[in-house]
Amino acid sequence: MLLPLLVAAVLPTHALNAERIGAVEGYGRPSDQERRRAGRGKPRTLPPPARDPLRLTDPTWMPPFAGPRGQTGPLDTRYGLRFESVYAAPPGPAGLQADEAICIVNTAPQDRQLAGASIVVDGQGELRVHADLILSPNEVHCLAHDAESFRSRFGRNPTAASLGAKSGVAILGSPWVPLSDKQGVLRLIVPKEGHVDTLAYKLTPGSWVPKNLPLWTGPAWNPKDSTMINPRVQLISRDRDARGRVLADRDGAEDYDSGSWYSGWGDDPLHRLRLPGQSMFFPAHRHYRGGEVVATSSPDNNFSALVHRFRMAKREILVSVYQFTSGHLLEALLAAAERGVHVRLFVEGSPVAGLKDRSRWIYWRVQRAGGEVLFLGSQPKKNVKKRYRYDHSKYAIIDGEWSVIGTENYGSTGHPPFPGYGNRGWEIQIRSKGFAAELRKVWDADSSRAHRDVIGIDDSLSDKFGGKPFKKQDFRPVKKKAPTLRPYQAPAQPLHFKGAFGAQLVLSPDNSLSETDAVLGRIRSAKRRLILLQNSIRTRWGRAKKKVRSILVDAVVAAARRGVEVRVLLDGKGYQLDPDAPDGNDDTVRYFNALAGAEGLDLRAKIVDLDTLGLAKIHAKGVIVDDEWVFVGSQNWSENSFRANREVGVMLHSPAVASYYLKLFWRDWHGTRLYDARMLQPFGPPGRGLPKGAEVAVHVELGETCIGTWQGLEHTFPCDHLDLPVTSASMAHMLRGRKVRVVGRVGSVYRGRRETSLNLGEDWRMDFSVRIPRQLADSLSQGGLDIGSWVDQAIEVDGVVVERNGPAIVVKTLERIRLRD
Question: Which of 38, 552, 631, 804 could form a disulfide with 808 if both were Cys (CB 3.0 to 4.6 A apart)?
Fold first, then answer.
């Protein structure tokens, strides 16, 4: 049965309303006295670090107030009917706003009657409720303009409607009063109680402070410059906590602003914004006594483990994935379909680079084999916009018993059939009917054909989501060969664990930004160690010039300031290290390390050395807390991923599983070094310090101080005591502007009119290259040295790293470049 998308689960009457202050031990909104002392114009995030080398805190701009912070009245301890959410729809193609809806929640511990109530829309009229509606505690009833339009927009029936009421939908009994899509005031009037709630909103630029408005204090709710989503497509949604409880009323915009940029670390128990049709799940952490967990990773073993799970399927395989390009995984699904297994796919219809022909071919094959393929996609001509910016999830449910949740797409590097090359990714298989049933509710809600953005595969010529014809009419898939440039050594075996464990489903945008559990909450509870292995971490959220520090980054910094050991390892692909982008992984690493140096924190951050480790990239989105909690999921650490996408992950409590991923992390961490260098002079006491000539592996630079290892021991010493740095091609990004020696293997050679380029990677636009002027290249050829034959040849080159479509060294003399055995 589908979980109602706008209705929270019914809770015990003693826990109906979460107080904003003291809702969770050690957590709560600041007191009124604290707010007055802090001042109204300052965002409540962590104070800036002692030194902010990247100027992440822009002193010229602060996020506007989404609510009257600092000037709110006392908590409203009265319970009863309140506005839960409002959708003031923008005009449609015909100028109609048939999708409009007003939802009412009962916060009282006993039933309340909505019949006879009225909603006064200032300047428009009065909407009366004649339907016999009774709300049980914490129940939500939605009143709609048109039942069919509401069903198409929200994916379910309204409780009552002015138009189109059919079976299961009550007749509202009153003409609909249009809501302004610019600004407006709504008042809820209840028989015998009178005026019980007010909502003032503004969806256009500029502040608006209604005057002399009962039950409302301060400016109207206005997300125009304080959220990442266009306010005209948002729901005006009342704040809740991670258990789905409505927060106590403050009679102001602060009641609706938990998804705004202003709502920083420590301001709300749950940071989310809502769009019509999005789910409202509140998964809890549950204990499973007799379950089974298989921990896998790529490029080590996740392909064989997933194929094995598909081969064992007997009835049904459900797959939700962002991109599917693996022919090997396709064959496993086709074999299952041939055995009579029902195979169903729900995939993103418009990924960033568009649907590849290889994906179209795979979806077409699944459909021909009797499977079902559904897409999440917008249809502008039909006024259909996706509920989520992207469905970026990567999970499967097999026979209602096994759940497979991972960080990797179904491709050749995410699930490599050959363990010698691929992404670093994590994937967990959980055997539990209860957990699978909870995940199945997400699948059912997302893939329901009641939503207009769920589109079936179609072979028609106009189809843009899949099937035939392909973009290239003569398309035939080509088998990909395993790259040999960076061999991955000693792949790990999966971990098979049977016994008790705890697990919580982590969903974006539903509960992933909960400060009491999920990812943020576990980071907040860290006491000893916090491990982050991430594809990317953006230090700032927001858009254009309106930037605030990421809530996630604030949580990590707060953990380090509590004395927690924090280690962060980020992907090193070129597009993550763009020198022209102010918020890449290299900037995040510098920020964390500069902060650690300035404040003396046990916080270290690195860019992974892909060349040395033999990895395509870090695609994992992993978190390990205190060596016993481990998070595996599809959520990148960007605002879009946590607030706008559909993402799926799991927070698992199991020291055994955490240990498996911890070993992989330390393998990648210790295998990554910024550079090697010799000590030019001794440092430290004799016998315990670093002697002259010692070969030191430098891992982190904290300003003028280096942290490195020699003979297995960590040392801290001045960086100016070192000779010429020797680094790998993938780490040259971090040493731009410095004279270094780069060691790597030539991937390809390109002869241009002015110079010959040796690319020591796979992408000419991003990876490190050696540029040889034409005159020098010609002299080498005349001397019998064919540069074109250097492909797969190990070389070393000395020089200053410059930017030439990625980091590069320009060789002007022959002695600067040498072949290695």
Answer: 804
Which residue from 647, 690, 126, 738 is spatially nearest to 407, judged by alpha carbons?
647
| Angle of CA points 797, 704, 572, to nearest 5° | 50
Q: Which residues contact 205 (CB under 8 A, 6 or more apart)?
A: 224, 225
Amino acid at 413: T
The span from the CA of 574 to the CA of 733, in Å, is 8
Domain 675-723, CATH 3.40.1170.10 — does that match?
A: no
Look at residue 115 in the predicted model and tell me its pLDDT: 92
C-alpha–C-alpha distance, residues 421 and 555, integer Å:
34
Helical (H) or strand (E) element with 607? strand 603-607
Provide the CATH number for the domain formed by 725-821 in this structure.
2.40.50.140
Beta strands at 454-456 and 372-376: parallel, antiparallel or unpaired: antiparallel
Residues paired with 714 in a beta bridge:
709
Paired tokens of 100: 């409009």
- SS3 at position 234: coil
pTM of the model: 0.88
pLDDT band at 374 (very low <50, low <70, confident <90, very high): very high
List b or e across 109-132, with b for residues whose CB sees 16 or more CB atoms inside 10 angstroms: eeebbbeebbbbbeeeeebbbebe
* Strand partners of residue 593: none
pLDDT band at 44 (very low <50, low <70, confident <90, very high): very low
Residue type, 537: I
> Does CATH place domain 290-456 in 1.20.1090.10?
no
